[in-house]
Amino acid sequence: MKQDEQKQDDSQNSDEEIIKKIGERIKQLRKKADYKNYENFAFDNEINRVQYGKMETGTNFTIKSLLKILAVHGLSLKDFFSEINIVPIKTKKKE
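Below the sequence we write its predicted structure tokens.
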């Protein structure tokens, strides 16, 4: 692998890193809404507490769950992801 290609690969986010960043963003939104812990936020917004906790830690979530949380905060997907710096992983092109 060429040195330039290695630098580019190092700057890309893995799937795990992207999911962690999404979880961190969800946590930021909760704190901005003045909730000190995720359990109260989940309860007040009728979201499964365990599921929400996993989302904040970036270990498990579905798009449907993410959309529900964004609706609580009045955010679109575009607004949500505009605050997250994600460098997509490049895939190999078919020849």
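Residues 9 and 89 are 8 Å apart (CA to CA).
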